[in-house]
Amino acid sequence: MMKPLAADDGTQNGSSPTGTQTLMRGLAVVHAVAAGARDLMQIAAAVGTTRSTTHRLASCLVQERYLRFSLNTGYALGPKLIELGFQAREEVSLSVVARPFLESLAEQTNDTIHLAVRDADDVIYLDKIPGKKGLEMRSRVGHRMPIATTGVGKALMLELTEDRWKDLYEKRTFAHSADSAKLLKKGSWTEFLEHMQQYAKGGFSFDLEDNEPSIRCVAAPIRDASHAIVAAISVSSTLPYMPYKRMQALIPIVKQAAAAISTELGAAAT
Q1: Pairing verdict, β 205-208 and 74-77
Q2: pLDDT single digits (tens) 214-261
Q3: How far apart are CA 251 and CA 246, in angstroms?
Q4: 126-184 pLDDT, tens per residue?
Q5: Quick one: which of 153, 151, 146, 142 has its CA closest to 181?
Q6: Residue whose C-alpha is closest to residue 114's, from 90, 133, 138
Q7: Could you tell me which residues are beta bridge partners of residue 75?
Q8: How many Å from the N-terminal Cα to the C-terminal Cα in the chain?
Q9: Which candidate among 41, 87, 178, 266 keeps its CA 20 to 30 Å from the CA of 57?
Q10: What is the pTM assigned to this prediction?
Q11: In the chain, what are the domains?
């Protein structure tokens, strides 16, 4: 097992126990490598630790397989994270329960299918079935996106207050391509609110190229036994395959699939 490292740069006198400080530093090293840091200098700058402390943390993480290191490429995420990622995914019963319904929806539509959950102000994709029309979207399992820019995100927002909608609308990030950023900036809060009110009333949501240029989707929320929204699914395709008329026709299909998953999670049929 990984042994805690003693703090050596004066932080052991802080408010947190030394073991907690070491744990947080180790996690920070992993995050720095995930963000692209490849050598000790880059990692130390990102984490804010000395070179010697960074080296000990990184070496320990390599030993425990959370990181890997090669002379040619430097540090990278290690196989232990892959193992834990798959284990965590398997332990989320939602993914297992939803999969047959996602496959059925994919068969019906031939489009890309997503399953996502909320994490703070973002959505995280738990599952994805690529479409059969030769299209590839940037979404992937484990990918995180701002909640107010995606169809599944808006479905997860349906029961929030209008004040919360506005807060999430204003927190949208534009760390995309220039074209995507323009699309994200297009449209006012008033338009966003009108759409969200329509979606909340109808129990569905749309992505009208808000997140990715030329990509549209139809989404619906998934509820648990308490009838709370816990996830969302969507059908996505490019503009030529997803005119507004087809989006309207997909609403009951996507809602039916979401309702079926909800029933499996214990939600009463409505």
Answers
A1: unpaired
A2: 889 999 999 988 899 999 999 999 999 999 999 999 999 999 999 999
A3: 9
A4: 999 998 876 767 778 888 889 998 999 999 999 999 999 999 998 875 444 344 444 44
A5: 146
A6: 138
A7: 69
A8: 49
A9: 87
A10: 0.68
A11: 11-83 (1.10.10.10), 92-264 (3.30.450.40)
